[in-house]
């Protein structure tokens, strides 16, 4: 199993460790429910150093990024980030990703630079795919092994982090970033992004600086009650927001149009992989749609792979993600259903063994912070 630069730290803290995407990762420390509430109401820090990072740099860097991703990277100014996906040539999704438009201080004249952040389980697959598409005057550099990533998430994030940097964190808009000194460490990429819906930042540093950064954040957050958070709570937090998880809700066989990711699929931006497939789906419609649903009268959780039935008892889909929402106190889930059955308010039934669980289609996010 692979490790992150902070694996020993998690073990010293008594984390429950398990394999995730080939890495020995902390799943929980005190418990998923407690850690979930900690991030929703206070502040927590996640080690997500298992994620992959690719630098795309050159005269045709934008051309390559535009070709292999679905969103319109031409709209990014330096300091902007965007959520996107990497389509395959059959209309499926190789991966979902973040795309950052980097400063050009390391570029020669006429060059641009981007960073693509990809899922840990897909690093090798994504690299091979993008490299196979790189017919452009552009270099690709895999910095995954040299990069650590901490996600400092929760409504108290700015209060904890601002004393550690001169970058104006409160002035940063969602999906922007800045490079600067953080906790005495130079060249930290501070990104106003996250996978929790609780607010906060993600910090990219060199792997050999990860421990110093972790300890600095934990020390600065002590007065605010900061705690380490595992991947278990990361999953419940993202599901309350309706954020897709690759391998569950999206994969090589699902289209972004089916998955409700039409907003990051810019078929009018110009040519890109599977553009024609998506344009046709957008025009003609698709046979299935990813939807969210709630089960306020149930206690049993809908699990990945459970069948979804309509009111007549006909199988019309499958559950992709499910959990007991710590914020709401009842089960929630996501799954693909036949087009037409995804309208909010529609009654569905989830087949859980011999029992059928009553579910109602609901629009994400299921939980609205502050509501």
TrEMBL record:
It holds the Pfam family GCV_T. Substrate binds at residue 202. It catalyses: N(6)-[(R)-S(8)-aminomethyldihydrolipoyl]-L-lysyl-[protein] + (6S)-5,6,7,8-tetrahydrofolate = N(6)-[(R)-dihydrolipoyl]-L-lysyl-[protein] + (6R)-5,10-methylene-5,6,7,8-tetrahydrofolate + NH4(+). SUPFAM superfamilies: Aminomethyltransferase beta-barrel domain, Folate-binding domain. Keywords: Aminotransferase, Methyltransferase, Transferase. It is an enzyme of class 2 (transferase). Its EC number is 2.1.2.10. GO terms for molecular function: aminomethyltransferase activity; methyltransferase activity; transaminase activity. InterPro entries: GcvT, GcvT/YgfZ/DmdA, GcvT/YgfZ_C, GcvT_bac, GcvT_C, GCVT_N, TrmE/GcvT-like. Residues 288-368 form the Aminomethyltransferase C-terminal domain. One of its GO terms (biological process) is glycine decarboxylation via glycine cleavage system. Residues 7-269 form the GCVT N-terminal domain. GO terms for cellular component: cytosol; glycine cleavage complex. Belongs to the GcvT family. PANTHER family: AMINOMETHYLTRANSFERASE, AMINOMETHYLTRANSFERASE, MITOCHONDRIAL. The glycine cleavage system catalyzes the degradation of glycine. HAMAP family: GcvT. The glycine cleavage system is composed of four proteins: P, T, L and H. This is Aminomethyltransferase. The lineage of its organism: Bacteria, Pseudomonadati, Bacteroidota, Saprospiria, Saprospirales.
